[in-house]
Amino acid sequence: MVSVLQESAPSYTMVKKWARLFQQGRESCEDDPRPGRTLTVVTEENVRKIEKLVPADRRIKLWQIAGELQISKERVGEIIHEHMNMRKISARWVPKMLMPFDKQRRLQTRVHAMDEKRRKAAEEIQGSKVGIEAYGDNFLG
């Protein structure tokens, strides 16, 4: 077995233990369930709870959610990042992908900024023309 599995081969003691368990009637290779808290805390119920908490307060912290739901910060982070597709920017949770409304608002902001820039440039050009006309030949020379 060592020649096939190399370093990941089970010890001789473990193989003896497995053989004894199968001789006693065990039929499964799976581990027996262990007592205590289950390891699966990323449940639909927890995802739904976090989906309600985050939009209500976009500045909520992982430890606050973890304390409220009694699960680890790592699992809260996994739910927010992987299941809700959100990330934290400037202390706020935001979607990784922009929604159509957000895309439209961003476009309108850019158009407004460009219009404002054009207006100011036109005012500067107009102001310099007025200055040149007011001083006439004295301005040029």
CATH architecture of the largest domain: Orthogonal Bundle
What is the name of the CATH class of the largest domain? Mainly Alpha
Q: If strands are numbered along the chain, what order do they take across the biggest sheet?
A: 1-2
Number of helices: 7
Percent of residues in helices: 55-70%
Shape: elongated
Spatial extent as radius of gyration = 33 Å
| Number of E strands | 2
Mean pLDDT: 84
| Spans where pLDDT lies below 50 across 5 or more residues | none
Q: SSE string, helix = H, strand = E?
A: HHHHHEEHH
**Which band does the percent of strand residues land in?**
5-15%
Number of separate domains? 2
What distance lies between the first and last C-alpha atoms, to the nearest angstrom?
Answer: 99 Å
Note the main sheet: 2 strands, antiparallel
Reported by name, the CATH topology of the largest domain is: Arc Repressor Mutant, subunit A
Q: Indicate the structural class.
A: mainly alpha
Organism: Eumeta variegata (Bagworm moth)
Protein name: Mos1 transposase HTH domain-containing protein
InterPro entries: Transposase-MT_Hybrid
